[in-house]
Design a protein that fits this description.
The protein is α+β, with helices and mostly antiparallel strands. The chain is 36% helix and 25% strand.
Length: 81
């Protein structure tokens, strides 16, 4: 049975270090699947996971731009090949 590949990752409840690793892994998985974007669900909370998400996206060589979706609890990253 093959594992379903998803464009979205939910990092609710992750610690910052865990979230950073999960997002980096997710970006690589989306690149390997030739997706055009990544979707990171970080929620609202104190904003720590959103900040970590933005830091990872800024530092990634695979992301050309990112923006919050309409709920602001999710950030969309546009992949650059």
């Amino acid at each position: 049975m093959s594992e379903e590949k998803k464009i979205s990752i939910d990092i609710h409840g992750f610690r910052a270090v865990e979230a950073r690793i999960a997002i980096e892994d997710h970006i690589l998985e989306c690149v390997n699947q030739n997706y055009s974007q990544v979707r990171i669900v970080h929620g609202h909370g104190a904003g720590i996971l959103k900040r970590v998400t933005e830091e990872v996206l800024i530092d990634s060589g695979y992301i050309k731009d990112f923006y919050p979706d309409h709920t602001f609890g999710v950030t969309i990253g546009i992949l650059d090949y």
